Amino acid sequence: MKKIKNKLIVLFSLITVLYSCQEDEYSFGEIITPSNIQITAEVIGVDSNNPNGDGSGEVKFTVTADNAVSFKFVHDGAEYLALTGEQKIIFSKLGLNTYTVTAVASGTAGVSSSKTIQVDVLATYSPPNDLTAKLFGFDPANPNTPSSKTWKIQSAKPGHFGLGPVGGTTPTEWYGAGIDEKNGVGMYDDRITFSSDGTYSHVTNGDIFGRDPHVINDLGPNTAGTVDGADILNYAYADYSATYSLTAPGGVETINLTGNSFIGYYTGGNHQYEIFGRDTPNEMILRTTDADSTFDWWFIIVAE
User: Fold this and answer.
1) CA 70, 242, 83: angle at the middle one, nearest 5?
2) Among 105, 167, 178, 214, which is disulfide-ready with 268 (CB 3.0 to 4.6 Å)?
3) Contact 153, 264 (CB under 8 A)
4) Taking residues 182-187, what's their average pLDDT?
5) Closest CA to 296 of 163, 137, 101, 99
6) pTM of the model
């Protein structure tokens, strides 16, 4: 009887394993690799007098594909997640240059296919010395000497973080954080470093502060953070490095971060930070628009 019972247990276990495997395989459904990828590039400001753009270096890329569930663009090692298949990329190297951009279409179960496009882009903006000196310590007397500066959120000032209407001109018009109000949420211990070679590093100390669902959409599932309304506190995220460029569309000085890089509070969007003010020594006021164009987010950063 004991042998029969043991055999029944083994048989039941095998049936359970086989059933589980069949269920797992079935849950994937049919795996189809994306096909028929179409990618276009619209250089901003192109007209009969400016065949390579208006000098801003900005290009709007659009990609479509059959059986794709998500897209991203890749240029020079930087990745840009594009849920809608559209992404603007700014190329800041002075002069007329040819750039190669790859669009990656992902399907079910992680299968993907890609297509590459080349685009000629004109960039004419050269940031002023007082901006580069402030941002990364540029010395015009020694222009070839590498330099860098590290920044953090200026938590000692009221209004160092907040929000307002898109296109508003009053910092933190609708909400501004008080002194040290966001202590312990994963923002104040961040350190961001801008270097003269165009690289950007972000020390997160293991976690960050961000907006739900933009954090989840761009960076992945929340494994350890605390959800507080539309915020995610202490979202687990490692240190990273990327690149940046300086432009001035419409005369507004702007820091353009590559990939999913950000400053202070993750909002998604175009990862462009307008320099709203830089008159105060060692400080800058920045603003960026979030991914669904609901708010402008404001930051005061201070150099260490």
Assistant:
1) 15
2) 214
3) yes
4) 98
5) 163
6) 0.80
Q: Say if residue 153's pLDDT is above 50.
A: yes
- Each residue of 235-272: pLDDT tens digit? 999 999 999 999 998 889 999 999 899 999 999 999 99
Calpha distance 291→96 (Å, rounded): 30
User: How many angstroms separate the CA atoms of 16 and 94, rounded?
Assistant: 64
SS3 269: coil
Q: Which of 87, 96, 89, 86 is nearest to 54 (CA)?
A: 96
Structure tokens at 6: 């043991």
CB 269 within 8 A of CB 211: no
Could you tell me the maximum CA-CA distance found in the chain, to the nearest angstrom? 93
Q: Where are the domains of the chain?
A: 35-123, 129-303
Do 235 and 224 contact (CB within 8 A), yes or no? yes
* pLDDT at residue 227 tops 60: yes
Long-range contact list for 279-283, CB < 8 A, 24+ apart? 283/154
Q: Is the dihedral of CA 45, 47, 52, 55 positive or negative?
A: negative
Give SS3 for 133. helix
pLDDT at residue 3 tops 50: no
Q: Residue 171: is the preceding peptide bond cis (ω within 30°)? A: no
Superfamily of domain 35-123: Immunoglobulins (2.60.40.10)
The residues facing 195 across adjacent strands are 148
